[in-house]
Amino acid sequence: MTSVRARGLGAEIRELRKAAGLRLEHLAHRCGWSRATLGRIESGERVPSEGELAALLDTLNVAGAERARLFELVNAATEARWWEAGYAGMPSALTALIDFERLATKITDVALALVPGLLQTPDYTRAVLSAGGVRDADLESRVALRLGRQGVLTREEPARLHAFLDESVVHRPVGGHRVMSDQLRHLVRIGRRPNVSVRVIPFAAGAYAELNGSQLILEFARQRPVVHLEQRRRGAFLEAPADTAPFLDAAARLPVLALDEAESAALIADVASAMERECERDGALA
C-alpha cells in the first residue's frame, strides 16, 4: 500500500497541473517523461526525487513558499515513521491506517462494539487485545502502539474526532466493571476537549445505516476522504468517491439520531457509576 504522504503529495501535484490547464500527457511530455511515470507520481505510487520535483515545479511555474513546502512534502514522504522503527512486521493495512490518522484533519468514528482505539485506556486496550488472541509476549508492544496513535488528538494542531458510540458500547463491561468504569470516566474527560466530540446513539434510535458495521471516515486538507472498514483480521479502505459517498451521507445523518454531547456525557457517567457500584458489591462479596 502506498505511503499516505506520497498520495498527498501526488494529489497536490495533480491539482497544480489542473490549475495550469494541462492534461497528464502534456505535463509529462514537457518534463520529458512518459504518461505512466507522471501518473504513478500523481497517484502516490511513486515519490518523485528532488530533481524530478524541481522539473515539475519549474514547468508549472511554482516558486516561493509553495515550492519550499512541496519539497518538504517530498522529504516527509520518504522519512521513517515512529511506528515503522519500533514495530517491525506490522501489517501494511495498519501502517496505512496510522498514516491516514496522522494526516487527517477530521476523523469520524462510528463504533458498534468497542470504544474507538483513539479513545481507549491502556487497561481497556489490554482487555480487547487479549480477547482477540494477542500473545502475552506481544501484548504490551501492541498496547503501546495503540496509545501512540492517540497523539493525533493532543499534538499542537490536533485532528478533530467525532466519535459516535452505539449505546451497547457503553454498557459492555470489557475487562470487567472496574476497567470499564475507568474507560467511561476517560470518555467523559476527553470529550471535554475542544477537538473531541463523543456522542451516544441510544437504543431508542432503532435501526440506522451504520449498524451494518463499524467504520472510520478520514478527511484531509487536500486529499479526498477515505473510509476504513474494520474486520477481524484485516481492514478495507474505500477511496473512490462513488464508494465513499454513501458512508459520508449516512454519517451526516448521525447527529440527528445521537444524543448531544451533554446528554451523552451524562449517560456515560451514569453507566460508570452503576459499574462502580458493581465493583463495590463484588468487593463486599469477596
Quick gist of this model?
It contains 13 helices and 6 strands.
Could you describe the 3D structure shown?
With 286 residues, the protein is α/β, with parallel strands linked by helices. The chain has 13 helices and six strands. The chain has a six-stranded mixed sheet with strand order 3-2-1-4-5-6, with helices on both faces. α1 crosses α3, α1 runs antiparallel to α5 and α8 crosses α9. The chain is elongated.
Radius of gyration: 22 Å
Biggest sheet features: 6 strands, mixed
Distance between the termini: 52 Å
Largest sheet, spatial ordering of strands: 3-2-1-4-5-6
What is the SS-derived class?
Answer: alpha/beta
Helix content: 55-70%
Number of helices: 13
The total count of strands amounts to: 6
Stretches where pLDDT is under 50 for at least 5 consecutive residues are: none
Which sequence of SSEs, written as H and E, runs from N to C?
A: HHHHHHHEHHEHHEEEEHH
Strand content: 5-15%
